[in-house]
Amino acid sequence: MHHINVEVCVDNIESLQTAIAAGADRIELCSALSLGGLTPTPGLTRYAVQHAPIPVYAMIRPRSGDFLFSPDEVAMISDEIAYFRDAGVDGIVIGALTADRQIDQHAVRQWVAQAAGLGITFHRAFDLVADPAIALAQVIDLGCERILTSGLQASAEQGALCIRDLVKQAGNQLSIMPGCGINRDNAKQIIDITGATEIHLSGKKQRPSKMNRPADAAVMGNNSANDNFIDVTDAQIIHHVVKQLNDQ
To answer: Which of 32, 181, 221, 243 could anchor a disulfide with 38, C-beta 3.0 to 4.6 Å?
Structure first.
């Protein structure tokens, strides 16, 4: 039986500490998980590299929205990759598509070259591709080591059969990592159906702010997320998933 790797995505120090203590095998470091994850800050990155005893992969995604990047954005992302490589992360998480939903091979090839020596995950931009079989072959060819995917559906649970096909096609050339909507109730089932050897989740809960604030306090941005609550990794969820998948 393979060890099933559990990757936890975090966007703050509290969640990083919790995920490590709860038994995560790898960290995906982000900012703004509520936007699907953006590039993490230099400070969070430095802290993670210094304190995490497990591999840290940095999301390289400078803005929310689509994965169609201009030449200037592609160059900027290359610069970000160089920064994170120098900062000492173990890997990066990237992805880019063309207007007609193919893998942007030109951009990804440039980024892989820039990341020399780092692990490379192709992120859920993959879930928007026109043809997953062709796209998978291209991502393998580009030298990525894994794809984070929900099987082109709204959640990995809904995309499980597609993920299973991708796992079969990939063989031992690349790892397919199910992610999106993974929780303590479906993690084992998704691993069993797909045959994947790793899984990705945030395991988030909301905790109330410890700050005293008046009811009519100012609100930051047009956020639907209430400033009185903070999204953090739930140790119990991560611990439960790790234990469930590896029968510890």
So the answer is: 32
Question: Residue 57 pairs with which residues in a beta bridge?
Answer: 28, 91
**pLDDT tops 60 at residue 246:** yes
Report d(CA 85, CA 98) in Å as an integer.
Answer: 26
Cβ-contact 75, 43 below 8 angstroms: no
Say whether pTM exceeds 0.90. Answer: yes
Domains of the chain are: 5-205+233-246 (3.20.20.380)
Burial of 87 (0-12, 13-18, 19+ CB in 10 A): middle
C-alpha closest to that of 202 among 190, 220, 184: 184
pLDDT tens by residue, 81-94? 999 999 999 999 99
pLDDT (mean) for 158-171: 98
